[in-house]
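Hey,
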Amino acid sequence: MLIGERESQTSTYGNYFVAFNYDLKGGEKTSLTSFNNGFMRWKFKKLARFDSSRAPDIVFSHPSCTACEADYFLSSFRFDSTEAKWGVRTWSEKSTEILIGSDYSVDAEENSKDDCLFKFADFNGDGFDDLAVRCLAVTEQGKILEDTTTIYTIQHGQPQVLIVRDHQQLATIRDQLCVDAKKSKLCPSK
């Protein structure tokens, strides 16, 4: 169950969504996140099959905040068949969010933002979806500070975050990311 909240019926600023499990038999409602933690401007992206569970993950995007220098994330709800409940998928060290972009923010050296592309596909050949994310950390002057490509996958029931370093694999993934991509600094001009 997903409940949207806003300041007033006509307000579009600050839309906030909280996710719950609801037990139809017992009538019990439990939050999928810790108390008062929800998602600003929740937006459905895709149903993805990261593993062999009965239900696919519900993948969505959300910003870290509104009216600020936001980071933009992907997260997903996954069904735990053992507990018969939904939860937010954890990817690494209790992180449930995957960075897919950011606004310019001021750091110690210079203003920079993350320009990212992402795509769901079977990148490791196991028959399930993986998520590839390539991000460029770029200054306002266009200087590239960092270029990273990461694969998010599930192996043997455990989430894996794999930094891609092999040049051939990087080229293959980057080509796939640019298929049907809107104009992006990450894709060469056609």
